[in-house]
């Protein structure tokens, strides 16, 4: 039995270029348009269940996609929320980068970086990988195709899990909100 996962990232949130992390920010007008473009691309696919975090931007993106899938069930799972940037949350990235260029690169893309009161990629991977393990069991049991409305860093880690990427490859991934990845899993 072949089942599909449709993985995508929510759209634009703010022009402030800040560490958003756990700030519960909604999609901007641009982000809503990106979600609508994505929704049209996914409109002909079969989606039975949609997963998102408890963050409003992930929920808004999934809601746009599921407008074309009226019978799809929605499941909120906090394990796929964005990375917690701790004390950096809400601060402008450029200001931090100009003051601490070496630390910025390590915090921004380092898998095991020390984030004051926050999470690094390794921390986030524990919850995301747990979600993915449970997701496979759920899909097999329910025999369903799923959509996942993820965040920048949870999406990177889902791809690491699905594509067996190295930690370095995962942290360098970039995503356009109007696009999605499709994974077909063969459950025998």
From TrEMBL:
One term of GO molecular function: phosphoglycerate mutase activity
Principal EC category: isomerase
Tagged with keyword Isomerase: yes
Binding-site residues for substrate, renumbered to this chain: 57, 82-85, 93
InterPro entries per record: His_Pase_superF_clade-1, His_PPase_superfam, Phosphogly_mut1
Gene3D superfamilies: Phosphoglycerate mutase-like
Protein name, per record: phosphoglycerate mutase (2,3-diphosphoglycerate-dependent)
Taxonomic source organism: Candidatus Iainarchaeum sp
């Amino acid at each position: 039995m072949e089942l599909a996962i449709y993985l995508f990232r929510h759209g634009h949130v703010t022009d402030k270029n800040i560490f958003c992390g756990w700030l519960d920010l909604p999609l901007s007008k641009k982000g809503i348009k990106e979600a609508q473009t994505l929704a049209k691309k996914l409109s002909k696919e079969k989606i039975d269940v949609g997963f998102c975090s408890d963050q409003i931007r992930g929920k808004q993106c999934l809601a746009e996609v599921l407008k074309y899938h009226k019978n799809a069930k929605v499941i909120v799972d906090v394990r796929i929320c964005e990375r917690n940037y701790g004390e950096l949350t809400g601060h402008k990235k450029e200001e931090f980068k100009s003051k601490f260029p070496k630390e910025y690169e390590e915090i921004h893309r380092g898998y095991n970086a020390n984030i004051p009161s926050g999470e690094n990629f390794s921390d986030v991977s524990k919850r995301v990988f747990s979600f993915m393990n449970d997701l496979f069991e759920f899909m097999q049991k329910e025999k369903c195709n799923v959509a996942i409305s993820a965040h920048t860093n949870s999406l990177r880690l889902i791809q690491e899990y699905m594509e067996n990427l190295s930690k370095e490859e995962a942290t360098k991934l970039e995503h356009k909100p109007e696009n999605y990845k499709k994974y077909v899993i063969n459950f025998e």
